[in-house]
């Protein structure tokens, strides 16, 4: 996921944050 969403690489600490990033990218 970090490779697909490098913008969230620093926020991967929280799963909820990753989900929010995925929605942003989508």
What does this protein structure show overall?
- With 26 residues, the protein is mainly α.
- The protein has one domain (1-25).
- 42% of the residues lie in helices and 0% in strands.
- It has one helix spanning 15-25.
- The mean pLDDT is 64.
Number of helices, where a helix is a run of at least 4 consecutive DSSP H or I residues: 1
Which percent range fits the helix content?
40-55%
Number of structural units classed as domains: 1
Q: What is the overall pLDDT average?
A: 64
**Quaternary structure of the protein:** single chain
Q: What fraction of residues sit in β-strands?
A: under 5%
Spans of at least 5 consecutive residues whose pLDDT stays below 50 are: none
Structural class: mainly alpha
- The value of Rg in angstroms is 7 Å
CA-based shape: elongated
Task: List how many beta strands DSSP finds.
Answer: 0
Give me the strand/helix succession.
H
Query: Strand count, sense and closure of the main sheet?
Result: none
Brief synopsis:
This protein has 26 residues and is mostly helical. The protein has one helix and no strands.
């Amino acid at each position: 996921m970090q490779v697909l969403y490098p913008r969230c690489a620093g926020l991967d600490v929280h799963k909820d944050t990753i989900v929010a990033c995925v929605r942003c990218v989508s």
